[in-house]
Amino acid sequence: MDTIVNIYSFEKLDVYNLARKYRKKIYKLSRKLPKIEQYNLTSQMCRAAVSLTNNIAEGLYQILKRQKNQYNQLTN
Predict the structure, then answer these.
(1) What is the mean pLDDT of each run of 10 residues along the chain (76 residues)?
(2) How many structural domains is the chain composed of?
(3) Please, are residues 52 and 13 in contact by the beta-carbon 8 Å criterion?
(4) Residue 19 counted as domain residue
(5) Quick one: the chain helix, strand, coil %, rounded to 5?
(6) pLDDT attached to residue 69
(7) Which of 63, 69, 47 minimizes the C-alpha distance to 10?
(8) Residue 37's pLDDT is what?
(9) I need a surface site. Which of 1, 21, 55, 76 has the fewest CB within 10 A?
(10) What does the alpha-carbon distance between residue 45 and residue 43 come to, in Å, rounded to a whole number?
(11) Do 10 and 57 meet the contact criterion of CB atoms below 8 Å apart?
(12) Is residue 42 one of the residues assigned to a domain?
């Protein structure tokens, strides 16, 4: 599985790179919000932006894991 993950790295996906750019923009925007929002809206925005990139990475891993299992079933 490690070889497959290295070949199909989530970091090579266009959608992952777009999500990283989006995350950086969210962090910059969150710094401009009023201090009163620091622990509410700012925190929620940043967590959502991080979650986006994490979900892309995890989703690719799940797809590759499923494909590997299907391949193993066919070859056995």
Answers:
(1) 59 90 94 86 92 89 80 77
(2) 1
(3) no
(4) yes
(5) 85, 0, 15
(6) 78
(7) 63
(8) 82
(9) 76
(10) 6
(11) yes
(12) yes
Taking phi over 0 as left and psi of -120 to 50 as alpha, with beta for the rest, 33 belongs to beta
Name the residue range of residue 45's domain.
9-75
CB atoms within 10 A of CB 60: 19
Cβ-proximal residues to 17 (8 Å cutoff; 6+ apart), any chain: 11
Half-sphere exposure for 46 (CA within 13 Å, toward CB): 14
Does a structural domain hold residue 23? yes
DSSP structural state of residue 33? S
Confirm whether 57 is domain-assigned.
yes
